[in-house]
């Protein structure tokens, strides 16, 4: 290939790169919305076998996704309420909030009772049902007890509308009656020993995961909080909502990208300058890597429509591996001296680069087989970036590297040679066998300490401060945790409500045993028609004796017109679910009804409240037809556990697949020698993780897959390059160590990430690449000596 052909090919590659850059810029910035996905839940895979359960999980996860919950706390009740009013007023002035609720519009609590009066004889608590079913039920005694009850301060029925208190007892069990938050001075307030807490809620005028919305909303809230803390000293504001978790995830990812990208860039730059002693190789290495990262980002957004924060941080670390290809070509140029010829250099490194690219792509391809969108996107990103970075070496660098270069730094070559000779001596003969036995004995205790942890919270662990505030808000307000719920299905709404009632009987037993704080379900607010008719039947014997009823009421002091009005309201009408759902009272609870489809049937949600154990909740649903506990975190953790168990088989499969490739290139007898460094590196890494008490997750095993690919690359680079540097022993191992150190500066820095999954990934790669790089000299059949 002549020089003009080299420039022509480089020109076409440059044009393709420019088009890729323009497309990537349009995808990232030109469509009016950012494709960067900060919703950590969006990364999680579908886990439920029942498609409706998956839909319900998504609905519940995002039911309040654009809602912000604030709790204004102060030791003084008046100051807490004044601060809440001021906070609500300040937030309402900003258009980033579609609505803000602090003060409630004046209303009579009787408005909560009135819709139920027409159905009062259909609504009974379990306690009243049990009492009415007893042969010795004494209506006169129940009436006297009701008349002498203390004044009800909350949602209360009037005595003339509910003489026996049956409706009042039922109202006392409704969510608005059980809530610790009570209306005071038109504010929802809870009282604790340490003061008063006032609820303020706001709905965003957009998505919590929109970067612009996040910044505007957080700025408005921070300013408002500073103002009320100045005006009402001693005020505290507790926060929770998807907005804060999304903002924290974005901030953490930006910090990780900057930290990994900046430190690795500076570190790699200093290494390349020190080894190649010229800024030219540095710029070309970063050019090759930059092209790969741009292409990877563009393709990932094209394929997935968005890019996860996890992928961006991983992409910042990809520098360390993508730069390997250009390093090998630059090293071949430096080692050739005045005899350098670009096309000959390309022929020299092509087999090693293609073999290394193939093993890397194999590892990432296996990573992409996991039905987990975040891992698939990381695999797509890496495979694209690796391929384009390698192609840039074949098509771009030869045209830009026409002239010869300075040889590699003498210090780096001498140091590499000394280390290579030392490792070769230690690994040869009886010393090698003895050393292997000692290392094996040292590794065994570490392997014995290995354990696993598949908890999904290791992937999406929120900041401790936010989690603590959410837990405190949940404790004070009585809100449920939203991550566990029951899906109740039936042929129609009546069957769904009946099945809910069967479930709620068991949940009440858990509440009585102190295992559950409570639950939220439609059947508690709208009993099934079967239950309502049964309730009416329990009251029928009393109304079958109208004279006795008048005698009881008259004896309790009721006026005749009130008695007649109440008795004429018998038997009333049943309360239907569809009518109730259309009422204003149902507005906060409509999301619990999944709908009634004539083909698929009907379904609803029941939310347990409190931190109950998953096993206890599962037991409550056991053997109940149509009732399924959906525990999204537990389901994903189980999924991670399954794939983690399969991961060792994938790793073994990858090794088996590499064997014929290496056997074709080096012969079957030399395959163990070439594979020994990555395989031993994996073994020693597992031992160190055991000593460090690191529970193994899916991400540790995925990192070990990459250790295999990267380690095999180093063995290939050394084995392919050694015959070309016999005039300068140690030069090839110096370039391998340079590749390893750039990888350690990139992937190793992930061990400092704020994301637990990336920390696991980074630590494993830090150990694996380090061990493998030290073991690589054992992959060659001879030992170099100084010349």
Describe the fold and architecture:
This protein is of the alpha+beta class and 787 residues long. It folds into three domains: 15-31 and 247-448 and 667-779, Multidrug efflux transporter AcrB transmembrane fold (Up-down Bundle), CATH 1.20.1640.10; 66-104 and 186-240, Alpha-Beta Plaits, CATH 3.30.70.120; 109-181 and 477-630, no CATH class. It has 31 helices and 13 strands. The strands form three sheets. Strands 2, 3, 4, 5, 6 and 7 form a six-stranded antiparallel β-sheet that branches. Helix 17 (410-427) packs across helix 30, helix 18 runs parallel beside helix 28 and helix 27 runs parallel beside helix 29. The radius of gyration is 35 Å and the shape is elongated. The two termini are 35 Å apart. This is MMPL family transporter. It is found in: Cell membrane. Keywords: Cell membrane, Membrane, Transmembrane, Transmembrane helix.
Blueprint of the fold:
Blueprint: H1 3-29, E1 36-37, H2 51-62, E2 67-74, H3 77-92, E3 97-101, H4 114-117, H5 126-133, H6 139-147, H7 166-172, H8 175-178, E4 182-184, E5 187-192, E6 195-204, H9 211-231, E7 236-240, H10 242-276, H11 279-304, E8 307-308, H12 309-317, H13 319-336, H14 342-368, H15 373-395, H16 397-400, H17 410-427, H18 429-448, H19 457-460, H20 464-477, E9 484-490, H21 493-512, E10 518-520, H22 529-543, H23 546-555, H24 560-568, H25 577-581, E11 593-597, E12 601-609, H26 614-621, E13 627-631, H27 632-666, H28 671-691, H29 698-721, H30 731-746, H31 756-775
Helix pairs in contact: 1-11, 3-9, 9-10, 10-12, 10-13, 10-30, 11-13, 11-15, 12-15, 13-14, 13-15, 13-30, 14-15, 14-27, 14-29, 17-30, 18-28, 21-26, 23-24, 27-29, 28-29, 28-31, 29-30, 29-31, 30-31
